[in-house]
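Record 1 of the preview.
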Amino acid sequence: MTDAGVCQVEIHVQALRAAFNAISVDPDSPEFVAARMAMILKALYDDEPGEPDQAIRDLLTDALHEAQRRGVDIDQALERARWMQNQELAEWNLRFRFDQDQEQEPA
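->
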């Protein structure tokens, strides 16, 4: 991507972030998570109603490529993400938990 292209993307990202931040939703809530994911999926992926996992698979595939580019251990990152999800679900008093036995943050 050219410098001009990067600049244009940055301008759009800033505008999108400003619009999202204007939403009056508690940033530490499941509603915020849902709104942020809806924005990402609608803005960047083909979120097909008949194939609800397609956009998620595309997003995860992109995340895998980016993790490799950054030298991130994806298994460790997923373990920590699942731990964080469990912490948030417990905080929000929601029932679904990925791993009921995992109470300590992974290394």
